[in-house]
Amino acid sequence: MPELPEVETTKRGLKKTIVGLSIKDVWTEYNSPYFHGSDTIKDPAYFRYFRKTIKNAKIKNVDRRAKNILIQLSPTPSASSHSPSGRGRKTILIHMKMTGHLMYGNYNRKDPLNRHIRLIFYLSNGKTLELCDTRKFAKVTLLPTETMNETIHLKGIGPEPLEKKFTFEVFKKQISRKPNGKIKLVLMDQYIIAGIGNIYADESLWRAGIHPESVVSKIPNEKLKKLYKTILFTLSRGIDFGGDSMSDYRNIHGERGKFQLHHEAYRRTGEKCRKKGCSGVIVRIVVGGRSTHFCNVHQRLIS
Length: 303
Description:
Helices cover 23% and strands 20% of the residues. By secondary structure, it is of the alpha+beta class. It has 2 domains: 4-150, Alpha-Beta Barrel (N-terminal domain of MutM-like DNA repair proteins); 168-295, Helicase, Ruva Protein, domain 3, CATH 1.10.8.50. Strands 1-6-7-5 form a 4-stranded antiparallel sheet, with helices on one face. The chain has a 4-stranded antiparallel sheet with strand order 2-3-4-8, with helices on one face. Strands 9-10 form a two-stranded antiparallel ribbon.
């Protein structure tokens, strides 16, 4: 699943390419009986409202909240009274879920993982923005811009770890909401901290020297300070390398990121630990149903 660095990379790419353009039309092949009656485009009735509302809307900005892409639109006459919030400004929310990625224009079509197109926005410059979603897990909906953070899709999400106001004190306060939780699972809880998933949790814990099953309340303050710093470092490094493409993720040009070339723990099962002076080996266990990778020597369990 794309995590904060992948979604941030996508957001930055879209801001450079689609802001100022208008959406001339939209197509989808999503149609799931499991989502009929929902406020997502997987419901055909909702998609008809979605299409009518966004046609001819101008793209004002592209932002990110946690793992969600937010495409902010200008008001249009087509935003009719069928909308619960009338003709106010709208924002398209796209959560790429496990196997989704957004691509713009003449993307790399040779990659088999770029061929599962489920949604196409036709833009005013003659190009397209396309959602590739191999397993059809992605979520796309339309939110009232002014109150989008109060909707079920965004309400309650934790603080953004790369914002300046995310201090160590905020970090400690947030994870302390689950004092008896295993640190790996707490880091991945989107209501605790936004954007961290399996890859960046494993990598951050490896750098901090903390076992993924360590109980939050048992971790010494100095270790927590180190973890806080390694989270910031690891997420920033992920962005610098254009995200992680060990699996399906591609950037808006359909190209692979390079963070997977710099893993220290994630999916390195059986390989020697690369921490200087460490004699350990990377092992794999399952924590909360998620594959978890760590060093069996320098990441000691704190219990």
